Fold:
Amino acid sequence: MNLKGQICKEGIWDQSIPDITFDENGVSNYAHLFKNLIKAFPRGEEDKKRWENLVNEIKKKHKNNRYDCIIGVSGGTDSSYLLHISKMYGLRPLACNIDNGWNSDISIKNIKKMTEALKIDLETYVINYEEIKDLIKSYMKACLPWIDIPADLAIKAYLYILADKENVKYIFRGNDFRSEGSQPREWTYGDGRQLKYLNKIYGTVKLKSFPNYTLLNLIYYGFLKGIKTVYPFYYIDYNKREAQIFLKNNYGWEYYGGHHYENLFTKFCITYWLYEKFKIDKRVITYSAQILSGEISREFALNEINKLPYDLKEINNLIEYVIKKLDLSKEDFQKIFLQDNKSYKDYPSYDFLFKKYLKITKPFLKYIFLHKPQSIFQIEMK
Structure:
């Protein structure tokens, strides 16, 4: 799939992105969004000092605790390096992995290598696979682009639950907008209200072990309990490729082949479901961010984006694996795949509430979030 229509002069954001606009110089609103995020979180001595002050505050607040932060781990680059960083700064993290039945063997090995080498306790929460399987099929039947929403919501929800259980006020996440970019809401948005609705309409299994992430969770844990989510890579120097080399050399960590490919269903979503059914290539976003971050050249990105995001033989094996693991027949899968595509806007969600009441609620967000969420930057972009 080649780039579509006008291309941003600074990145490779193109007109495949639903809400993209360009200024008189041919620079996209996504490039401006990236620059706004850089201004808000400018790495350097000042932000390094902010990070160090935060670390000291975390240590002080949890001096009588067994742990002082919770880190969600997947076996990927970002969360693995985050474990290293946390120990380097003298923190006492509790690592948490959500097992939804789709973790790759490499990711499991990476988690074990990192936690054992760093002597970090690990808690693994296993979600009943029948629930996950039913939710995934519900999202597929709904014909939404990002059908991996259940995993995203479960991770956010359980990290809150675990933090509350351990009386820990800080959750560390390995997100890094400089290497990942900001995904269009149309491509990846989903929330707990929508999940409940899809489970009711398309599901056949009652959710018992699945930890959903709802607006009430956010208010209860974020506001009333004072648990904050921290993105350390917003503050400190971090280069994903350099981190991978470091992890390999120091911990025997293994690379899994691509962004979020440590989870096999996520890999399927990115390389096949999004790309072939919706004509969405998430590399447009990540490459653009990496261009503006100086990690790769624009020429490199323009060359790579013309290649398929998957190996043909490998993707066929992955599709067969996914169909079998979801207990679908090839015919049923093909029928779902050929149905008309939908948007998250076609189903109930919290989205209209966020947009409608943003001005009213914005002053209170600082009591829930440690950082201004990327989603708010995106809404303001419009």
